Amino acid sequence: MSVYSLKVIKGPDSGAVLTISEPKIYLIGRTRQADFQLSTADPFISRRHFLVEFTGRECICKNLSLKNPIQINGIVRSKIALKDGDIIEVGYTHIRFHKDTSNDISEIRLRNCK
Hints:
The strands form two sheets. A six-stranded antiparallel beta sheet has the order 2-1-11-10-7-8, with no helix packed on it. Helices cover 8% and strands 43% of the residues. The relative contact order is 0.23. The longest helix has 9 residues, at 105-113. It is mostly beta strands. Residues 105-114 have low confidence and may be disordered. It is built from one helix and eleven strands. The protein has one helix at 105-113; strands spanning 3-10, 17-20, 24-29, 36-37, 50-54, 59-63, 71-72, 75-76, 79-81, 87-90, 93-100. It is globular.
């Protein structure tokens, strides 16, 4: 199974990382209940700003904020399947989505066959 991550690359929480490794819905926002809690220093981030649903095969990003929509690679989106390298923009905060292929089962099998 793949492992993904969200890394803040710009904004008050720069450097913060969320590892996504098990199928579930991850909440991102300012609330303490968030799986990836972002700082209140960015006034344009909602308590429950967006979700990333890991289905086991892909990650789907879904906007929850009516006032401050998310942008993926500069385009406003309400729901989208994320791709490696996508930039999620929420307020002044930019978050890079990354797929770590080193843990893919298919790659491990290929490496063991050599």
